[in-house]
Structures are given as structure tokens and as C-alpha cells.
Design a protein that fits this description.
Layout lengths: L1 E4 L4 H12 L4 E5 L2 H9 L3 E4 L5 H7 L5 E4 L10 H19 L3 E5 L13 H12 L5 E7 L1 E2 L7 H7 L1 E4 L7 E4 L1 H14 L5 E6 L4 E2 L1 H11 L6 E4 L2 H10 L4 H15 L17 H4 L1 H8 L2
Parallel strand pairs: 1-2, 1-4, 2-3, 4-5, 5-6, 6-10, 7-9, 8-12
Antiparallel strand pairs: 9-11
Helix pairs in contact: 1-7, 3-4, 4-5, 9-10
The structure holds NADP nicotinamide-adenine-dinucleotide phosphate.
């Protein structure tokens, strides 16, 4: 049995679909029963629970050989690192109590660093917590910046014909489609071919600057004049709070943007950590969102 946390999210849902199509026995974990229903229809066992509920999570992990473990985002958390610690500790306790032996842990690029990386600090701490579980075979997936993050610019494209964030326009950055992360995770979970503690960085198809991203999106959506604008850290913080993020989460996201801009967070590209989906392959989702097709 393979269990998937965050099973209705970007990555978890794609892992579940892949494993179900291969005929694997899959147990999907998330809170919303409604969203889980689609996976149940496809043959998954489903468990509706909060990862903070260690007792329920331990029961849901009973009989599980391999687990995809993630700490989901909670952008309203007043103290985001404390939230990550609470969910991360609950996951580790349940893994130990249920005797799960193989875990693919969703971490992040930059998780080797203990500090100055915003929300990635909590993923660094989670790697350390899992590493201390005796006898556990672990793969820490460290994907780079998700291409899906760029969809947050859709309202800006509609209202101001720009894309924007706090990231420098000219910074070459690895970017990955979540389907590529899911493909690697599904393969590792199905094969159970790892032992000890392994780190796997995942860097997408190539590095891109935000200026290039805007040019590619502009061509796809017939707005060749679409430009990327780098926002100040103060404006970014305010925009995040206006969107409903807590003050603490907004501060952490600004800290992470700064860490990218100052090249503190960097990938080291090799053929092994380069994945398939190009930004050109991903970009049609902008056409669907902006033109409804
Ligand atoms: N964005 C990036 O560039 C980036 C880069 C590297 C790593 N990451 C990592 O990737 C993670 C996000 O992955 P994703 O995009 O696949 O997630 P996502 O699409 O936001 O999905 C979150 C999933 O977790 C479930 N969930 C949320 N809170 C829960 C709770 N308290 N208990 C149980 N289930 C809960 C959600 O379903 P319900 O709401 O129904 O429970 C959903 O299935 C981040 O948290 C970060 O750690 C992100």
C-alpha cells in the first residue's frame, strides 16, 4: 500500500493518478471529502483528516509500505514556521507509530540551508526531523520554483498587461512543472528502490529569467508586449497581505525572494536533475485561464 499526503493538491493528485493507472494500491490523504471523492471513484482508498491529528494519521498509515509526505501550505498561519513544525512533528510521530519504512519527502531547493530562506527554513527542519527516525529509508525531493507559482500573475495580466513579483527580471532560475515532480515521486514510491537517506534535487527543463517567461507567455496569449516588472520588497509584502496572507507568511516570502535574488538559493544542474517539461509545454495553461480555451 502506498499512501499520499496532500493527495488532492498539485503534486499529490498527479502521483495518485499515475500510481492508480499502474494498478497500485493507493491511500489518499487530505481534508476535503469532496475533493477526495474523485480519487475514490478512480479506485483509491481515501482518508479525510488533518495532518495535525497524529492519532488519525497514524491509523491512516497502518499497513503502508511507502509514503509521499508533505507539509502543505497554510498562508494564513500567524506563525508559519511554528505551523510547519507542528504538522512536520505530527507526520514524523505517525510514521514512527505506524512503522512506515519508505518515505519520499517533499522538500525544496535551498533546504540544505538552515536560515535566510523564508518558508524553506521549515523544510530544512523537517528533513532533519525525518533523518533522525531510525531505520527509515528516505528520499528528500528538493524541487525548484514551481511553474505553477507564475499563475498568480494572471489577474495582473488581465488588469495591467504585466507579470510581476519580487524576483529580479534578469535572474536565470530553474523552474519546474509539478507534473515532473510527481513523475519522479511516483517512480520512487512504486519501485521502493532506495535505502538510507538520499537527496534528489529537481531543476526542471532549463533555467529561465522572468523576462523570458513574460516573452513566452506573451507570445502564447497574443500579447507580444507583455512585460515582467520586478516589485519592491515592500510592495510585494503589501500585495501578499492584501491577498489574505498573514504578516508572517508575507515576511517569509519576501525573505525567500531575497534569497533567490542574492543567489543564496541556487541549483546545480546535471542531466540527472534536469526534467522534461519545458516552460513552452506548460504555458498553454495561461491560454486556458485567460481565454477560456
Ligand atoms: N511553490 C513552490 O515553488 C515550491 C517549491 C518547492 C517546494 N514546495 C513545497 O510544495 C508544497 C506545495 O505542494 P502542492 O503545490 O502540491 O500543494 P497544494 O496544491 O497546495 O495542495 C495541498 C494539499 O494538502 C492538503 N492539505 C492542506 N492542509 C492540510 C492539512 N492540514 N491536513 C491534511 N491535508 C492538508 C490539501 O487538501 P485539503 O485542503 O482538502 O486538506 C491538498 O491536497 C509547499 O507546501 C512547499 O512545501 C513548493
Amino acid at each position: 500500500m502506498i499512501a499520499i499526503t496532500g493527495a488532492t493538491g498539485n503534486i499529490g493528485s498527479k502521483i495518485a493518478e499515475t500510481l492508480l493507472s499502474e494498478g497500485q494500491r493507493v491511500r489518499c490523504i487530505a481534508r476535503s471529502r469532496e475533493k477526495l471523492a474523485a480519487l475514490a471513484d478512480r479506485g483509491a482508498e481515501v482518508q479525510s483528516l488533518s495532518l495535525a491529528d497524529t492519532k488519525a494519521l497514524t491509523q491512516a498509515l497502518s499497513g503502508v509500505e511507502a509514503l509521499f509526505a508533505m507539509i502543505p501550505p497554510n498562508y494564513q498561519a500567524p506563525d508559519f514556521l511554528a505551523y510547519q513544525e507542528m504538522v512536520g512533528t505530527s507526520l514524523v510521530r505517525a510514521i514512527q507509530a505506524a512503522g512506515v519504512r519508505y518515505v519520499v519527502n517533499l522538500s525544496s531547493i535551498g533546504a540544505h540551508l538552515p536560515d535566510k530562506t523564508g518558508p524553506i527554513r521549515g523544510l530544512h527542519a523537517q528533513e532533519q526531523r525525518l533523518n533522525q527516525v531510525e531505520g527509515l529509508h528516505l528520499v528528500h525531493l528538493r524541487p525548484t520554483y514551481f511553474m505553477e507559482n507564475l499563475l498568480a500573475s494572471v489577474p495582473l495580466i488581465q488588469s495591467m498587461n504585466i507579470m510581476g513579483s519580487a524576483i529580479r527580471a534578469d535572474l536565470p532560475m530553474p523552474m519546474i512543472a509539478t507534473r515532473d515532480i510527481a513523475a519522479v515521486a511516483a517512480r520512487r514510491l512504486a519501485q521502493n528502490d532506495f535505502s538510507g537517506q538520499t537527496v534528489v534535487e529537481l531543476l526542471g527543463q532549463r533555467d529561465l529569467t522572468m523576462a523570458e517567461v513574460a516573452r513566452i507567455v506573451g507570445r502564447k496569449i497574443d500579447r507580444p508586449d507583455l512585460n515582467y516588472v520586478q516589485f519592491s520588497y515592500a510592495d510585494t509584502r503589501k500585495a501578499l497581505v492584501d491577498m489574505g496572507f498573514s504578516d508572517d507568511v508575507a515576511d517569509l516570502f519576501v525573505e525567500m525572494s531575497r534569497a533567490f535574488n542574492e543567489e543564496l538559493i541556487q541549483g546545480h544542474r546535471t542531466p540527472r536533475n534536469t526534467t522534461e517539461t519545458s516552460f513552452e509545454d506548460f504555458a498553454p495553461v495561461f491560454v486556458r485561464l485567460l481565454h477560456g480555451r
